[in-house]
Amino acid sequence: MYIGIDLGGTNIKLGLLADDLSVIDRLKVPTESETNSDTVMANLSYGIQQLFITNHISANDVQTIGIGVPGQMDIQKGLSIFSPNFSNWANVPVAQLISDEFQTQTVIDNDVRVNLYGEWQFGAGRRKQDVLMVTLGTGFGAAVIAGGKMQYGRSDSAGEMGHMSMHHHGRPCACGNKGCLGRYVSARGMLWTVRDHLEAGETTIMTDWVNGDVSQLTAHMISKAYDEGDPLAKQVMQETGEEFGYGLANAINLYNPERIIVGGGVAQAGERLMAPAREIVATHALKTAREACDIVMADLGPWAGMIGAGVYAKLKHEEK
């Protein structure tokens, strides 16, 4: 058996998987990402213990634990160097802490790469050799399979599309740069765009929904307002979709994938967001590369990261 874990900013999703990677059991526990690394790691350990208790097993029954972690990392050392989703989190030895506690091989990888491992094995990436996956959530993540192999790069940073420089004097990013793609195409970015329009004197029905407190706005509200014909919401979707399209066109020209998979919570906006993105891709990506690539939505839903972490755990176990 294997354990797959998706360490998210809000919840930790854990799954117990059989040797064939079918899901035996799954659960989620709060991350409490606004606290510190000790609290988050304690919550992670608690979730693993609950899987053991519920399924009447021990650590001896588990071959490998795989964990998807957002941000920069040293995979060989099992070290999470930096994660924009967590407070008081730097150089956390995630793999060592879990392997020491449970005496079980533990491996980590970037959260988007484990999502792609899952989609590649069981979802929208099956039987594809050149795949780009993009996840649109609080931030913007991406991962790349080229020639049937996951791409890592020299410092495990391959595929960081979210930090593609789009505006030289644009919005500041936690990475230290300005104008990164993820500062525009993400839940955080879309809400920033809404605020920019409000500051310019435009109006929206969304402010009535939150009694004028714009800090309470959510990305889901933008989709809802769009469906009710709100002009500002439609403009925000158009701007965000176009920005996304330019990012995808650059990625198609760079990676020449046969398939792009779009996942994450913001992707639930669907064609509200994707229609303008497709229009930009159609006019800005290289013709031969564009015609070789299709863009589809992810198959595995909100548990994709957990499943993919289990896939990754089995891969690393078989490498031993």
UniProtKB/TrEMBL annotation:
GO terms for molecular function: kinase activity. It holds the Pfam family ROK. The keyword Transferase applies. It comes from the Bacteria. PROSITE patterns: ROK. Gene3D superfamilies: 3.30.420.40. Keywords: Kinase, Transferase. Belongs to the ROK (NagC/XylR) family. This is Glucokinase.
